[in-house]
Amino acid sequence: MNIKQKIVLLTAAVLLIGIFIVWQxxxxxxxxxxxxxxxxxxxxxxKSLGLEPALxxxxxxxxxxxxxxxxxxxxxxxxxAGLFFVFKTKKNKETK
Amino acid sequence: MKIILKxxxxxxxxxxxxxxxxxxxxxxxxxxxNFEDKYKRNQASFFSSTPLxxxxxxxxxxxxxxxxxxxxxxxxxxxxxxxxASLKTGIDLRDEHLKSASWLDATNFPDIxxxxxxxxxxxxxxxxxxxxxxxxxxxxxxxxxxVVADVTMTYLDASEQTKQKAPGDLLGVxxxxxxxxxxxxxxxxxxxxxxxxxxxxxxxxxxxxxx
Lengths: 96, 211
Prior knowledge:
The complex is a heterodimer of chains A (96) and B (211).
Chain A: H1 3-25, E1 29-31, E2 33-39, H2 44-48, E3 55-62, E4 64-66, H3 68-95
Parallel strand pairs in A: 1-4
Antiparallel strand pairs in A: 2-3
Helix pairs in contact in A: 1-3
Chain B: H1 2-19, E1 30-34, E2 43-49, E3 54-59, E4 62-69, E5 72-83, H2 92-99, E6 111-126, E7 129-140, E8 143-156, H3 160-163, E9 170-180, E10 189-190, E11 193-194, E12 198-208
Antiparallel strand pairs in B: 1-4, 2-3, 2-12, 4-5, 5-6, 6-7, 7-8, 8-9, 9-12, 10-11
C-alpha cells in the first residue's frame, strides 16, 4: 500500500465516520423523513376533556439510514475503492 | 288489577331510568355534537409496525356528528369520518403510496367512516366521564366491517373556559380499536415494507353542540 492509497483509505474512513455521526445526530432513524410530528402542549381544558396531547406536523427533513445515509456511504466506498485501485495500478506501472 | 298493572309499569320505568347511564349536566334531552373543527384540532390516527420501523399516520380532517340523550348514553347515534387523502405519515412518498389504488384508493373511496350502531358496557369513570364499548360499522377502501371501539367520553357544560375552544357544551372523545387490513382488501405492502396486518386506530377529538 503506497502513501496515496493510505490517504484514500484514511479519507474514506473519516468520511464514513462523519456520515455515521451526522446520521446519529439526526436521530438515527431507519427511514429518511420529510416531516415530523411534534407534541403540542396540553391546555387545562384539553385535560378536562380527557384528550391526549395533539400532534402538529412540521415540514423538516430528517436524515435516515435509508436511502440517504446508505447511498452517500455507498458512493464514498465506491469512489474510494476506485481511487485505491487507480493508485495501485499507477504504482505497479511505475515499478515496471 | 289496574293498580297492580300501574305499579308494575311504574316499577319498570323507575328501574329502566336508574339503569340508564348518562351525564349529569345542565342540558337536557337530545343533544347533537359537531366534530368539524375549523381550526383542525381534532385528530384521528393509525399505528402500524413494519420490520424496519413503526408507522404512525395522522389526519386532522375529522368530520361528523353524534346525537344522544344526555341522560342515557345508550341512545348515542351518528358517525365520524376522515378523508383518506389527508393522512400523513411523515414521508411524502409513503403518503402517496397510502392514497394509491392498492392501499386506501383515496380517489374512489375518499372517506374513512365509523357509523355508530350501539353502546354497551357503560361505566362512569369520573365527573361526567363515561367509558363504553361502542359497536359500529367501520368503512375503508370500500369495505364495511363491524368493529367494537373502547371509547371514553367527557361532557363539559359551556363556561368561560370552554368558550376559548368552541362555543356551547363540549364533548371530548377518546376512541381506540383495531382492524385487520386483509379484511378490507388492502395490500399490506407499503414502499417495499410489509406492514403488520393488525392496525390500531385512535381518535382524539372534541365536539360542540353549538357548531
